[in-house]
Amino acid sequence: LVYGFSPYMLTQSYGHANLTLAVFPPLLLLLGDEALVRQRLPRWLLGGLLGVLVSVQLMTGEEMLFTTAIVAAAGVVILAALHPGEVRRRAPYGLAVLAAGAAVALVLCAYPLAVQFLGPRRPGSILPARETYIADLRAFVTPALSERLPFFGRFVLPDSEAYVGVPLLVLLGVTVVALRRRPVAVFAALLGLVAAVLAMGPRLHVDGHRTGIPLPWRLVDHLPLFETVVSLRLMLYAYLMIALIVGLAVAAVLQAPAVTRRVAGITAVALALVPWFPATPFPSTAAVVPAFFRGEGVDRVPEGSAALVTPILDLRTELWQAQAGMRYRMPQGGVFTPGPSGPQFDMPATALGTALFGLQTAGAPPAAMPSEERALYLRDLAAMGVGSVVVGPAPGSAAEARFFTLLLGREPESVGGVSLWRGVTPGAPAG
User: Fold this and answer.
1) Mean pLDDT of 204-208
2) Strand, coil or helix: 415
3) Which of 42, 186, 273, 308 has the fewest CB within 10 Å, making it most exposed?
4) Alpha carbon distance 46, 51 (integer Å)
5) How confident is the model at residue 44 (pLDDT cuts 50, 70, 90)?
6) CA distance 47 to 219
7) Strand 386-391 versus strand 344-345 pairing type
8) Nearby residues of 45 by Cβ (< 8 Å), 6 or more positions away
């Protein structure tokens, strides 16, 4: 519960399914415990499980695979430093598991990796992260807007997934001190601290201000692969270690001989987690699909052709496209597209896209359209190869329908809850 509903998860759940499908880190923690500590299973079996797990994560999200490898390497170093006398005895088993896992993963991932790095659609540019999203020191104790905490009001901070809170920090400190003779508690505390420091990026930020104090991430943030990592997302692993410590605390409390101590301990844990409880109802968007995309008219769009569907910069249009069986292509989508001038989000930056986004936000229908603007918008449609325009139900849809009526010189077809223009021929006089 602590890991699965941490501030990281609540923040990323607004739009990053690949980052909230985070089963890989705890599963790898279990495999690592077996490979480095318990060493009971056959090496080939454990290595095979590791290879399959890595392969599944590669197909799900490469950034999480890479960041998990970073934190796992730090965990191995911490484990070896805490138990130097065990390294020589346990290393052969662990290395054998790692070799078997690498072999299985290489076989399963060879073709996808070849397509990614050698295929015709390989990226020509990257999206450098650097200090775009980092954990501010204040964020660890100050709740942010994304948590919408009912007990603390609303706070606007860009690093909401770094929040821990003073009550939970106190609980963690007391637990680690009380269980300091248990190696797993010390290990979790040290690795959680390392992950939190890495999440702070290359330089220390305090209350929104960048200081000149360098942090460990600065040593690697310019290296290949590392330069694309959003360091703030390393807080995921800090929350995993926090969850482990909270679990140890609950287990210790439940083993207390006196009932009053058990009740007091569970109450303390619950109170420490109260600031994490999100306000309800949790924000959501109704997944309403117009009848047009469910078969009542979508066949009027030629199969395989390009259709501009509004609202742009809205994930609902992708849901509608999926519901239509991917019948048409769209020049927009919730994706970063690599290009020669750097990554671009959604549809290419055009005058048409700017105008449509303004209509969605302001909602004022245009009274007229000057000829020079119309020619510019038509060129944008031609450059995107648009053959059909669909205005779906959304705020500003009336203004968008008026916009395309002026642009294309004719009224739309009203079918299945949308406005449809077929046979769009950009560049030619309309009407």
Assistant:
1) 87
2) strand
3) 42
4) 9
5) very high
6) 31
7) unpaired
8) none
